[in-house]
Amino acid sequence: MGPGVKVGVHATILDGLVVAAGSVIEPGSVVTHHVPLNAIVSGHPAVIIGYTGTTTTLASPVPNVSASGNTDLGVGGCHLYHLPLIPDLRGDLSVVEFGKTLPFQPKRCFWVFNVPSREVRGEHAHRTLHQYLLCLRGSIHVVIDDGKHRAEVALDHPNLGLHIPPLVWGIQYKYSPDAVLLVLASDVYDSNEYIRDYAEFIELASRKGSTK
Length: 212
Prior knowledge:
By secondary structure, this protein is mainly beta. It folds into 2 domains: 6-52, Hexapeptide repeat proteins (UDP N-Acetylglucosamine Acyltransferase, domain 1, 3 Solenoid), CATH 2.160.10.10; 56-210, Jelly Rolls, CATH 2.60.120.10. It is built from 1 helix and 20 strands. It has a 6-stranded mixed β-sheet with strand order 7-16-15-18-13-20. Strands 8-9-17-14-19-12 form a 6-stranded antiparallel β-sheet, with no helix packed on it. The chain has a 4-stranded mixed β-sheet with strand order 1-3-5-6, with no helix packed on it. A hairpin with a 6-residue loop joins strand 8 (69-72) and strand 9 (79-82). The protein starts with 5 loop residues before the first strand and ends with a helix.
C-alpha cells in the first residue's frame, strides 16, 4: 500500500496486490488487480474510472471544421490540435501538415488496437522524444502530467491530435472496443528514452523547471 492511498468503507483488496501511491479505492469496491499510481478505481471487480488531481476533461470539438487550431492544455507544453475535417459524400477527410499541425518531423509511427477497455497503457514519459496521438477510430482518454499539473483529454474524433512533448507523463485508458490509436514519434525506438519510474520522472521534471 503506497503513501496517500484512500480506501473507502467495505472495500476489499485481494492479497498480494500493489496499490500505488495516491490512488483511491471507492467504497464497496473489490480490487482484483494492481492499482496504478493516482488511479481512482470502483466496482466489482474494480476498474479505473479516473485519476486524482486532473483539472479538466476537454470536450470534443464540433466535428465539421474547415480550419485547424490548437489549445494549450497548461501541462508541460501539451497542445490539443483541432484538425481540418472535410466532409464528402464519398467519405470524410482530415489532414496533418508537418511543421504546422504536427510540430515536429516524425521518424516513427505505430498504432494500438484491440485493447480491452479495462486495460491501461502508457504510464511513462520520454526524455527527449515528442509524440502526437490521433485516435482514428473509437475513443480513448489520455492523462497528461508534468509533475505539477495534470489534465485528462478525451480523444473521440479522428480530427483531434494531441502533442505530448518530452518530460510529460502520459497514460491512456478508457479505450472503446473499436479504438485505433495512431502515434507519431520524433525519433526511432530507443528503450533508454523511456522513464518508467514516476519518482525519477518527478526528479527530472523538477530539474527542468528549475532551469527555466
